[in-house]
C-alpha cells in the first residue's frame, strides 16, 4: 500500500512551509540539500520537520494539505504541538458578522 504525507517544516527564518509527498524522508532531504533553487525553502535552510500526517488516500492528503495551507502560522504551530485547546480557539470565527458577535 502506498502512503502519502502532509508535512509542515520550520525554516531557519522561523517561517513555515506546508507540503505533500509520498516519501517523507526523501522530501525533507531534498529541502535541506537545496536541489531546487526556486523552492520556497531554498534560501531558508536548514529546515526542521515539525509535523507530518500519514494518509493512504491521496485525495484525502491533497484535501488536508490545501486546508492547512490556508491556516495561520499560529494555528499550524498549535497543530504541530498537538495543542487541541489552542487549535480549537484559533478555529473559531472572529468576524463581526458571526452570530456570536452580534448583540
TrEMBL record:
Keyword annotations for this protein, in alphabetical order, are: Endonuclease, Hydrolase, Nuclease
InterPro entries this protein is in?
GIY-YIG_endonuc (IPR000305), GIY-YIG_endonuc_sf (IPR035901), UPF0213_domain (IPR050190)
**GO terms, molecular function:** endonuclease activity
The record's annotation in SUPFAM superfamilies points to: GIY-YIG endonuclease (SSF82771)
**Segments forming domain GIY-YIG:** 2-78
From which source organism is this entry? Gillisia mitskevichiae
For this protein, the record's PROSITE patterns field holds: GIY_YIG (PS50164)
Q: What is this protein called?
A: Putative endonuclease
Q: Which family does it belong to?
A: Belongs to the UPF0213 family.
Amino acid at each position: 500500500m502506498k502512503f502519502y504525507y502532509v508535512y509542515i517544516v520550520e525554516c531557519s527564518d522561523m517561517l513555515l512551509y506546508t507540503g505533500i509527498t509520498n516519501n517523507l524522508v526523501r522530501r525533507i532531504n531534498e529541502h535541506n540539500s537545496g536541489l531546487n533553487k526556486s523552492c520556497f525553502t531554498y534560501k531558508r535552510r536548514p529546515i526542521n520537520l515539525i509535523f507530518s500526517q500519514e494518509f493512504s488516500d491521496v485525495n484525502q492528503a491533497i484535501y488536508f494539505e490545501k486546508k492547512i495551507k490556508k491556516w495561520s502560522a499560529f494555528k499550524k504551530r498549535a497543530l504541530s504541538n498537538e495543542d487541541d485547546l489552542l487549535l480549537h480557539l484559533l478555529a473559531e470565527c472572529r468576524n463581526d458578522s458571526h452570530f456570536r458577535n452580534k448583540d
